[in-house]
Amino acid sequence: MFERRSLSWPITLGVVMIVLLVLLTVGWVLLTVFRVIEERGATIYWILLFVGTTFLLLVLVGVIMYLALSVKAINLNRRQANFMDSVTHELKSPIASLKLYLQTLNRRAISREEQENFFRYMLEDVERLDHLINHILDAARLDRKLMADEEEDIDLAACLRQCAEETRLHHRAAEDSIAVHVEPAIVHTRRVDIDMIFRNVIDNAFKYGGAEPKIEVISRLAEDGVIVIEVKDNGRGIPFRFRQKIFRRFVRLGSELEREKPGTGLGLYIVYTLVRRMRGKVRVLDQQSGSGTVFEIRLPGLVRQAFQPDSSASKD
Hints:
- It is a single chain.
- The protein is an alpha+beta fold.
- The protein folds into two domains: 1-140; 150-300, Histidine kinase-like ATPase, C-terminal domain (Heat Shock Protein 90).
- It has six helices and seven strands, in the order αααβαββαββαββ.
- The strands form two sheets. The protein has a five-stranded mixed beta sheet.
- A hairpin with a 4-residue loop joins strand 4 and strand 5 (226-232).
- The longest helix has 66 residues, at 42-107.
- The radius of gyration is 28 Å and the shape is elongated.
């Protein structure tokens, strides 16, 4: 298992190094200046003062850059370790379950009903593995440059309804666990990108909602053709200090070894990257009343009604 490294020691080390460098450099400059003043006059004093100050600034900039890079590298290592922990757990659990079911089917004679249950559970495990692999592949493809012919006009309202219903079925939630209130609107992008954005956000709402999730998906047209989509849940909410961190790659709150919810820490990173690619914005807000989280996504839309029937079509 990967060792979790604390950020306290590199920060303390960096601060101590900066203080020592300041003291040593200032002391060297002062001693040199005093000696030169006594021997040769004030002209060389200003030259050495300028040189010493420039040297001090360069050393400070170098140390600060080194400290910043060290902290960034340690944060990345920590997130990668969390990712490895989560992926290992996500792989081991369904594989162990599949192995147990197959061993049982091979060694014991069981009833037809039990066989059907086993096959259903095994299919769920395979779907879980497939979902994990697709998630990793989606994240790996984010840097690929888009082609112009890949984009199309998409009925956002229909897409939101479809994503909401399929995610509800995936979580086996009741029909009244999610409500969709959307206005007709069109976005011009890749369909797979829109699907990934809202499947991840709605899936996140189901996973971290209350004991009985109550999800609400709302879309409306704002100024200048901007489409505002809100996905609300009734969970515990996200502390303010973590609301930017959760969109980073491999970030999940808490320890992977103590976590109950499955995931890889890539879902919201995918959402953030795709929304930014579409020249949109995503942010996390609190519910206006009660507990819960609101994911607000703002996307540029096309200023016209979505896919209205052609009035010029012939009538019987």
